């Protein structure tokens, strides 16, 4: 009996060794599949037909003739679920300027009719305050009265039923104290709305493509305004870089936000993937990008797996960025190619919206 037990033990030991050897030959166990989170935000900045001035009133029929692809990708559904009309001059808004191009600081082309053109199709609309051209005017307006500027932005949001985007591109010494006053004043009128049911409560900010430009703004936004435990702003847009990046370069830039920059002094903290989108060009200079015309060969398609699975690394708990933003609809430059006919974007942005199952209207956004 004892010999039999020993024999069985020896056989068991040999079997275990054999199984271990076979498992080593088979290689390491496959990693667990990354959690896939569907894209929530799929939007476009819009520059009207005059290089982002929005200086003239446009009728709905004429506007539709140049922008129909945004509301119909070919199957009757919109190509995007968010449009950001760009730009409002912050100093003119503060001063309530009425002149040839503005009424009470709002560009004359940003009318209720244009807002309704999009919202009637379930597309959320925001007004962007700033842009690189108006960086100095942001500085001046904030120095004069950041609180009043925030109140006037909130009044515009109420009047038109839109959200507001902060596009303050000051790379050196931004006035963060007064920008905080702007945000606090806006939130006093339109409190943070996690459900996303109040369009005027949507308040976002633009940050750099990665963490190596607009460092002070990136740091402040990640540390204080985009936290998942105490959110102040809804989300950030990682803006386009100087030119259309490769998929690898864009991913590297966006990963910088997720990782933060601990080596900086003071450090830039990590940003939750659920708190930002990534920006790409649809038309750039004299080139119409596949982002506009051919989703199958686009950087958007190449990046979609990363955008839907990017894992948090110090902030947030859910995988996946919020989605994509595209620069820019219609005519962002007086000399470059835009997205008006014949260069419309049903085959790029529209096909991408279909392939990714982009929801319209914009859903409630993840909070973690």
From TrEMBL:
Keywords: Signal
InterPro entries for this protein: GH (IPR017853), TAT_signal (IPR006311)
Keyword Acetylation: no
PROSITE patterns registered for this protein in UniProt: TAT
Residues spanning the signal sequence: 1-26
Annotated protein name in UniProt: GH18 domain-containing protein
Organism: Dactylosporangium siamense
């Amino acid at each position: 009996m004892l010999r039999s037990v020993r024999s069985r033990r020896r056989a068991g030991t040999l079997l275990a060794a054999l199984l271990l050897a076979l498992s080593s030959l088979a290689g390491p166990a496959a990693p667990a599949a990354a959690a896939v989170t569907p894209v929530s935000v799929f939007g476009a900045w819009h520059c009207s037909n005059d290089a982002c001035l929005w200086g003239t009133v446009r009728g709905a029929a004429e506007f539709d003739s140049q922008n129909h692809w945004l509301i119909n990708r070919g199957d009757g559904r919109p190509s995007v679920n968010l449009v950001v009309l760009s730009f409002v001059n912050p100093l003119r808004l503060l001063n309530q300027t009425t002149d040839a191009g503005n009424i009470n600081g709002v560009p004359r082309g940003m009318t209720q009719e244009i807002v309704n053109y999009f919202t009637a199709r379930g597309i959320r609309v925001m007004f962007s305050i700033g842009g690189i051209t108006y960086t100095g005017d942001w500085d001046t307006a904030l120095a004069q009265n950041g609180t009043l500027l925030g109140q006037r932005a909130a009044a515009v949001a109420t009047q038109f039923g839109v959200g507001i985007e902060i596009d303050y591109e000051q790379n050196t010494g931004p006035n963060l104290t007064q920008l905080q006053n702007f945000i606090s004043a806006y939130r006093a009128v339109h409190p943070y709305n996690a459900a996303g049911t109040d369009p005027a409560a949507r308040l976002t900010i633009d940050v750099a493509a990665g963490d190596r430009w607009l460092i002070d703004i990136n740091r402040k936004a990640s540390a204080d305004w985009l936290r998942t435990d105490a959110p102040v702003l809804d989300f950030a847009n990682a803006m386009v870089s100087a030119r259309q990046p490769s998929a690898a370069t864009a991913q590297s830039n966006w990963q910088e936000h997720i990782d933060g920059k601990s080596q900086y002094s003071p450090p830039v903290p990590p940003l939750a993937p659920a708190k930002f989108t990534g920006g790409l060009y649809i038309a750039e200079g004299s080139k119409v990008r596949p982002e506009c015309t051919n989703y199958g060969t686009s950087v958007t398609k190449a990046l979609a797996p990363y955008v839907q699975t990017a894992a948090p690394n110090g902030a947030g708990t859910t995988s996946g960025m919020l989605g994509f933003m595209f620069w820019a609809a219609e005519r962002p430059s007086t000399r470059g190619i835009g997205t008006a006919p014949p260069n419309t974007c049903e085959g790029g942005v529209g096909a991408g919206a279909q392939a990714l199952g982009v929801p319209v209207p914009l859903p409630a956004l993840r909070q973690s």
